[in-house]
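Exam revision sheet. Question 4 asks you to relate a sequence to its structure. Input first:
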Amino acid sequence: MGVENRIAVITGATGGLGRVVAHHLAMSGARLVLVSSNADKLDLLRRDLNLPQERWLTVVADLSRADAAQVVLDAALAKFGRVDMLLQFVGGWMGGKPIPLVSVEELSSMLQQHVWTTFYLAQIFGPHMTANAWGRIVVVSSPSAATPPANGLPYSVGKAAQEALVLTLAEELKGTGVTANILRVRTIDTNHERERQPSAKTASWTTPEEIAATILYLCSDEAGPVNGARIPLYGSP
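Answer key, structure tokens:
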């Protein structure tokens, strides 16, 4: 079984990846809860998807706040009665400095965006999915979580900690019908530069469409045995 009539919460829905995944899930028959901190961008995405009202819900929320995850779940339950999938795309990149020049604020920002948002969501959505005996949680990470480059401390620490959280969650979800998995992506190629301008630099980039295809599999019934995986989607090293 695919994702038809499944309820998908997409955080960071108005970003380059979120928009493409939303379109792919919509075309596959899923019902969407689109979450972003930007109301105008959410409205543009909603209009672009052009779905009937019974298949979408938009929620404006700042997921760095401890109470926001509950607000999103409550809104989804009021509209659809349940949530089947949580796709966590909130996050950003910060780096470019050696460790002596990294500020506390920069490190804290990456921890907030990648770790705390995922923590708040996992605490709220994990028990809900477990109670329903079916669920899929997918987070997008980076190979720098395992092999951090020079001058990239804030992002690498944020992603490493996020992965530890998701892998712990996966262990706790064993046998419940709910899975938690990580997709590792080096660079999200929203402009398809890998195809238009092939080079050694772009060879390991991943398109949003490739990520969306993997997510569609992970959110199927057939992917039930896949739990706690760190799936590399960056081809060449």
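Marking note for examiners. Residues 11 and 35 are 5 Å apart (CA to CA).
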